[in-house]
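Dock 6-O-phosphono-beta-D-glucopyranose; give full complex structure.
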Amino acid sequence: MSVFPQDFLWGAATAAYQVEGAHDADGKGLSNWDVYSHLPGTTYMGTNGDVAADHYNRFKEDVALMAELGMKSYRFSVSWPRIFPTGRGEVNEAGVKFYSDLIDELLKHGIEPMLTMYHWDLPQALQDEIGGWESREIVDAFEGYARLLYERFSDRVKLWATFNETIVFTAFGYLTGMHPPGVKDPKRAIQACHHVFISHARAVETFRKMGVQGQIGFVNVMQPNDPISDKPEDVKACEFAEGCFTHWFFDPVLKGEYPAELLAMSQAAFGVPAFAPGDAELLKNNICDFIGLNYYKREMIAANLDVDGFAMNTSGQKGSGQELGFKGLFKMVRNPNGRYTDWDWEIYPEGLTDAIMRINKRYGKVPIYITENGLGAKDPIVNGEVLDQPRIDYLRDHIQATAEAIKLGADVRGYYPWSFIDLLSWLNGYQKQYGFVYVDHENNLARKKKLSFGWYQDVIRTNGEKL
Ligand code: BG6
């Protein structure tokens, strides 16, 4: 007997900028990524999403492949500037039609849509006109965008997520400067992040006021932090890292408040987050229905008196990453006994059980969807076949880790590997592949099923019994 419930949603995920292409088609406005990725030195070898996997033009072919795979659900994101070219005001009906057609095509094949409203592609006009996430005005703009999505799609979409991985687009966008708008300032990062939580709460409030039938959640990445040793200074550094990386991002949407100690520290050090009247109540009254959990790796943490900086391996040359850290607080270090990908991400399936159970422990039995999980690799091609056995091994182990958590009592309702199809990795180009479907960039973006495609088909068919 499978431990997965009968109605478990076996799915796969993508995001608009990474898969759609057609960056200026049919009235779409420019996003921050359309602009940023064209600036010299910002992405791996200057790669961008102008064409990506051309999913915008080939979505019917792609949905047919999803149906062949047996997917029960598909997680995708909507590109805000495709709907509102300048972020607010006039609606681009052609953009609405694209998603409407995609949703119809999914439903025609019995595939349940899970819609993410924001997976990092902000209308550039909102960056230019109001200052993006740093501006309080963004809350109204986001609420207007969310309202339009509910009006047009809630007759067919039942699973909604507001934001994808707030830690990444706020920390990379405003703290390390690796994502747009390329700012490096903790104070600005923290206030931008606050506006995301408030925008989320407002979108949840509107969802409920409008009586939308469905569930609304928030997607966070979680990399459980473990201390590199049992020395008190490493354990303490690790607790602090867990607070910053995890509690800061889960508490506001699941408890309706920031972790008190960290909030006090941040306000004392930087004067932010600054609350507007009503913010605390808004957060408190709009706890979300589920959490989307993205899991790839864990982090080993050590006390840190020396490392100050953030330089990631974006080339896929194993070992080229450097130690990352915030001096005086903590650093992320390599596990001497760990297994690592070519991008220096630790492969640690037990960490997924751990991540799920840490959520359970802190927030109770909240419904969880694993909204991303996968192996980024340069897949071997042998006689024209894409033999991605390492991906199969990775996913199998993580599905087992999910089953473990269900056995321990967690309410996990779906599993969406990243990604359905090969797509653009924001900073790592097209060579870091995650998909079940290969995209041949030398041959007009032709689709080809990988070895993992047949394997996942069996997993779904047997509800996770045949791994
Ligand atoms: C998550 C994002 O952070 O991880 C995805 O939600 C992203 O958009 C994925 O592609 C994998 O990260 P990367 O850097 O390997 O592409």
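Observed: The CA atoms of residues 20 and 350 lie 33 Å apart.
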